[in-house]
Amino acid sequence: MVKANGEKSLQTLIDEKRDLVEYFYNDTLAPHYRARTGLTAAYIPPEFTNWRDEQRAWRKSAILFDQSHHMPEMLLKGPDALRLLEKIGINSLANFSTDRAKQLVGCTPRGHVIGDCVVYRLEEETFELISSMPLLNWVQFNAEKGGYDVTIERDDPTPYNPAGKRWFYRFQLEGPNAGKIFNDAVEGDAPEIPFFRTAKVKIGGCKVLVLRHGMAGHLGAELSGPYEEMDKVRSALVAAGEKHGLKQGGTKTYFSTIFEFGWMPYPLPGIYTGAELRDYREWLSGNGWEANAQLGGSFLSDNIEDYYVTPWDLGYGHIIKFDHDFIGRAALEALPEGKRRKKVTLVWNREDVAKIFGSQFGDGPRFKALDFPVAYYGWPQFDEVRAPDGSLVGHSCHCGYSANEGEMLSLAMLDAACATPGTQIVLTWGEPGGGSRKPHVERHEQLKVRATVAPAPYAQSVQKLKRAAIG
Amino acid sequence: MVKANGEKSLQTLIDEKRDLVEYFYNDTLAPHYRARTGLTAAYIPPEFTNWRDEQRAWRKSAILFDQSHHMPEMLLKGPDALRLLEKIGINSLANFSTDRAKQLVGCTPRGHVIGDCVVYRLEEETFELISSMPLLNWVQFNAEKGGYDVTIERDDPTPYNPAGKRWFYRFQLEGPNAGKIFNDAVEGDAPEIPFFRTAKVKIGGCKVLVLRHGMAGHLGAELSGPYEEMDKVRSALVAAGEKHGLKQGGTKTYFSTIFEFGWMPYPLPGIYTGAELRDYREWLSGNGWEANAQLGGSFLSDNIEDYYVTPWDLGYGHIIKFDHDFIGRAALEALPEGKRRKKVTLVWNREDVAKIFGSQFGDGPRFKALDFPVAYYGWPQFDEVRAPDGSLVGHSCHCGYSANEGEMLSLAMLDAACATPGTQIVLTWGEPGGGSRKPHVERHEQLKVRATVAPAPYAQSVQKLKRAAIG
């Protein structure tokens, strides 16, 4: 969030803390702790039915996710809006017509990722940015400091939205039957919408903005409209879905889709160091999102920069387009091949997972418990990944269980030499010293867990779509 | 709940359903599903820190549970109040002075349990009854139909209380340090209170009613007072507890105490059959608690009476006092020894528990998943327990995990011949036919789980207190 008048800035917070990692690892307690499944519990149940059947529905029939509450939004308007986004984004916005949405990835001048979000071009000079609080803050800062002719409005997640509600509802309709349900729900003929293009349709008597999208490895749809019409549209979708096996998805299922889908959300923004970002840190609040990072996991460094990531680490290497002038371009162009990690999925060794579970019985030692389906608890989480010879080769971040795959999976950033599918690595599960002081981390001991490198996304069906979202 | 004007009665519901068990097993969906941990989520978090450390605190230091929201209450006043309670209770209320609380267990004329609750004698003719919706309904029905000179007021759990709040807050302070915290929190000298006696003290500037109690195997205290003073009293307790390792306990921990403590809450009330209870069923609502029983588990009978229990089955055999005239007395006196089951704890075989967990990996078969720490999902749940020769010897009801014991435990009612500690039995985990239609029951297969009979309560420290609560 932006610093309010008289409020402490992020820079002041950093100056006060002798060891920022120590602080983020032990003392921050943001509302988005425990990997966020608790954040919106008052609005969306963790499970509508049970998360196992909901995960299955997402793969086998269809699921309706409610995204109305957890993602921050921004409306960016004005003659300079596109120019600002092009300055921020490492990817090209060249063909950004008003019937499209785009992913937007923003970096620091040193080429470290700040965040990624989805942008709709609603009108020629009107853009809607969804998700990534750090990136929205960065866009706003640049708009204000860079002299762009734009206006900005922000809409915070429901739990801390001053209005107690949102501008827009947002649903995600996914799964092999999503298309049929969409066609049945739309009044009149349903339009054919190319991937990542938008259209306007009528559902339940309401005008709905549709983005043709994909999350579960099938073409799906993101549907949004005025918040007040949420229930009408949901009812119409649920009714249309009845004969197609549609389930509503709770937050446990929603936040566990990434293990199959391969998206690494919310990296630590690389903004805490460097004189060139001091202005930005003084502009940011000392109580906001960036001030409440919640590092967790077995990797513990005394240097916050060891947690910064580049677009390559998150699997965005191929979308960087050096055809336009953007923040971080020079640094990214100069980054040697050897420093570009690769995003992979790790498939955890079943015997070792069973050992973690089994440690809960008897007198110990107890290893860090695996909550199902979302097992990571840091935000972000960094678990050490080592080659069999003991050398550190990367970090495992989001870990959890997929009932569809029947595996414990994690998304990791590895040195290219270890990133080939089939490579055997060892990750350290659990934190040193019995665990951090974070109240949600129970006392535990560490365990070396064997894992096999696999592609990200892990689900075969998702891999087909992986490039299509970014033009 | 009592039937409202024009509302369908429980009897009408029963007449409509051809198979009541089939209905309760598949189609009811009450707010107390999933063993209640979701019921009060808007008021009490599932975890304040993490349930493993909270379970530990309950055994090793101290824990503060918030019971303000989930239990129904009744105020029973008038010259005939004690006489009514004596008519209901199978246990003696002979020494019920105004500085005491008592457990009250009520049965049908056939000697089947309806429910049990705690009763405070607030004044000579004023009694406060806490918990057990079916028992409170039964008390009210008898008051109205039996011509007792009493008045009755009801206060429902917060989630469906018309006032949106309660009469009283209620805290449970437990654990080896509970006494120290209590003494530190009380203004002035803390009184010595004998077990299950009450006193009035001042905490946080507020007058508080204290019941000396025990739940975690240590003497603890139940504290109550006007709902408006809840936050003041909680703050004072939390402050006093800081140096004594006090944790606040979430609902996951709260509802998992029974596996060590040995209380079998909320049996199916034995009211659905018998001409002598037809009046009662016509008085009860067809939408209330009794109409929304949620049978679950591997035991499936076509006769609802197979789910009825006697006081012996729940471990209340020793409290029955045939020194007064109460409903069900004749039936209980006549019940042959061979039909009196014994309450035990079952300690599940670790290899078989690991097999259930392991079934989540690979392509199947998948067994019914064990949610931690509360694994039972029926309300009530009945899992078949068989002797090694295959004969049915009883039912396992509430199952879950204790981090203190490092075991998967369940509370069961077994034939006396199989109830000796050390006896090996086999319970069937999971439902026939892939699972009921209940949305929270995922598709699964059944597994035979070996288990060892142990005393109930399981925790040694609790066993010492087990008789003391009932006079």
Summary?
By secondary structure, chain A is an alpha+beta fold.
Helix content of chain A: 10-25%
Q: How many strands, which pairing sense, and closed or not: the largest β-sheet of chain A?
A: 6 strands, mixed
The chain-level mean pLDDT of chain A equals 92
Largest interface: A-B, 35 and 35 residues
GO cellular component, one term (chains A, B): cytosol
GO molecular function, one term (chains A, B): transferase activity
Domain GCVT N-terminal (chains A, B): 47-263
Keywords (chains A, B): Transferase
How is this structure best described in words?
Two copies of one chain form a homodimer. With 471 residues, the first copy, chain A, is α+β, with helices and mostly antiparallel strands. Among the domains of chain A are: 73-156, 2-Layer Sandwich (Alpha-Beta Plaits), CATH 3.30.70; 301-463, Probable tRNA modification gtpase trme, domain 1 (Gyrase A, domain 2). Chain A is built from 13 helices and 17 strands. A six-stranded mixed beta sheet of chain A has the order 8-9-10-7-1-11. Chain A is globular. In chain A, 55% of the residues are buried. At the A-B interface, α3 and α12 of A face α3 and α12 of B. Chains A, B: It comes from Mesorhizobium amorphae CCNWGS0123. Chains A, B: GO terms for molecular function: transferase activity.
